Amino acid sequence: MSNCDISFHCLLLIFLPICAALTPAEKPNILLVLTDDQDVALGGMMPMKQVQALLGKEGATFNNAFTSSPLCCPSRASLLSGKYAHNHRTTNNSLSGGCNGNYWLKNIEPHALPVLLQTAGYHTFFAGKYLNEYRGEKVPPGWNDFHGLHGNSKYYNYTLRENAQNVSYTDTYLTDLLSSKTLEFLGKPELVSAPFFAMVATPAPHAPFIPAERHRNSFANIEAPRTPNFNHISESLEKHWLVGSSKLIPTKTLKLMDTYFQQRWETLLAVDELVATVWKLLADQKKLDNTYIIFTSDNGYHIGQFAQPFDKRQPYDTDIRIPLLMSGPTIPKGVEINAPAVLVDLVPTILEWAQLSDQTNGDGESLHALLVNAVGYDALLDKQYTRSLLVQHWGEGNVDTYNAECPWSKKDRLTECTIEGACHCQDAWNNTYACIRHFSYNTNRLYCEFRDNENFVEGYDVDDDPFQMTNMGYEWLPIERALYSLALQNLTKCAGPSCRDVHI
Fold first, then answer.
1. Residues 283, 285, 289, 291, CA torsion sign
2. What does the DSSP assignment read for 425-466?
3. Where are the alpha helices (DSSP H) in 190-250?
4. What percent of the chain is predicted at pLDDT more than 70?
């Protein structure tokens, strides 16, 4: 039987194992390691040799994994809730944008993943960056053991909410502290009779790009990849206004970008060590055979693509593709999965592992069937398979966010404009968009609609144009654009099962 003879829907009905109900002590443990701004498109997994050897060779690697929002707080809210941003209403990294805001606190967080797992008997642990606007007022619901960072990623000089108190650190490298806290948690006697859910959210490789002392200059001779779209100036109708208005990046800034690229990789070496150390402890405790491990990031990152120096917030693969590796008791070893996945899929996947599928009320779909059937089945060779993922971003520029040191005016409503970035602004009011990442047999497309004065459209055949340099949005047949536009309207209004029923 060939790959093409097996349909995805048949897999769900025929090959998916049906397990007897498990007691709490028999339920699998779950470890989620989350990085911050780690790309795939620019080689972001290259420093992670141990992660690749342990999770990749011992489990599954998703080749087409995506964030639902290329910005920290919206993507983390999606990961924790299983909901797209229009449903959890966290649209940017500010309180006014819903980050740790009232709607999140009252309507989403009390029903998020840790609460569901804790209620089902899991002993839950969190260490690291939670949400950008979290300031340690109290421990969020659902966590038995909590060590949450105040604010955005740091490596030194930070404060953690450690259960009943806030504790400040000066000289302790944060990734190393998270490793120690995780090992301490895994040694607790409560875990002898209860399953655990542990989430470790590291600062790497987010700015300010400070590696551990032992890793400094490990990649001193590496430069940022000069991809075909690196420092590329777009023609009219190729790119939306913010990217289309970029100028060539000056030499001084290019050198700084190479330094940042090196340092980003160097910060990841401590994360690689963290994963290996935790893996060894679980092996020594003889818990690996009943532990699922997930490694992923909140969003990707660009360095120089389309003459944008360094940031995320764009709809291209540099910014929206993320690493996703999983290992565990029902996952074949050393497999690669081409079917698409998105961050909102993690909640239903974890709930299925925990035999809590009836608790799923999010927008994603479980990846469990794809994982257990990864040998002998490739969804993208299945003529019946199709999936459309949603990616959303709300531009933050307004009259108060401009930088007077840069040659722009208040009326341009730009933000993230810095001298070190040669005044190439990384966000604007009209950098607001919704995109579909569409996968089916012989189809791998990106279609985006921008909320700007031009109602700008971008579309790419990604297999033919992996660097998204040729905008086909105005070249596709009118019926194709109409179908994508209709699907996008449905996706941006969907909730729960309706998010999984949008097909093109």
1. negative
2. --EETT--EEEEEEEETTEEEEEEEE-STT--EEEEETTT-T
3. 241-244
4. 95
* Average pLDDT over every residue of 400-422: 90
Q: What are phi and psi of 445, to 5 degrees?
A: -125, 155
Q: With bands split at pLDDT 50, 70 and 90, how would you rate the model's confidence at 121?
A: very high
Q: Which amino acid, 12?
A: L
Residues 6+ apart with CB under 8 A from 201: 34, 36, 76, 126, 127, 128, 129, 130, 149, 178
Q: How far apart are the first and last CA of the chain?
A: 27
Cis peptide before 205 (omega within 30 of 0): yes
Residue with tokens 């970029």, as numbered in its chain:
246
Residue type, 357: S
1 band by pLDDT with thresholds 50, 70 and 90: very low
Distances from the Cα of 333 to the Cα of 58, 89, 135, 478, 487, angstroms: 4, 38, 40, 44, 36
pLDDT tens per residue across span 215-251: 999 999 999 999 999 999 998 789 999 999 899 999 9
User: What interhelical angle do 251-284 and 174-186 show, nearest 10?
Assistant: 20
Q: How confident is the model at residue 235, as a pLDDT?
A: 83
Give me the mean pLDDT over the 312-337 stretch.
98
Share of the chain above pLDDT 90, in %: 89
Q: Tens of pLDDT along 465-489?
A: 999 999 999 999 999 999 999 999 9
Helices marked H in 142-226 — which ranges?
174-186
Contact indicator for 369, 12 with CB cutoff of 8 Å: yes
pLDDT given at position 3 = 42
Taking only the tens place, the pLDDT of each residue in 168-222 is 999 999 999 999 999 999 999 999 999 999 999 999 999 999 999 999 999 999 9
Compute the distance between CA of residue 336 and CA of residue 379 in angstroms, rounded to an integer.
11
Inter-residue long-range contacts of 110-114, CB under 8 Å, 24+ positions, other chains counted: 110/141, 111/81, 111/361, 112/80, 112/81, 112/141, 112/142, 113/80, 113/81, 113/82, 113/142, 113/197, 113/347, 113/350, 113/351, 114/80, 114/140, 114/141, 114/142, 114/143, 114/197, 114/199
Length of the chain as a residue count: 504
Is the Cα torsion angle 147, 149, 150, 154 positive or negative in sign?
positive
* Interatomic CA distance for residues 293 and 291, integer angstroms: 6
CA distance 115 to 260: 38
Could you list the active site residues? 72
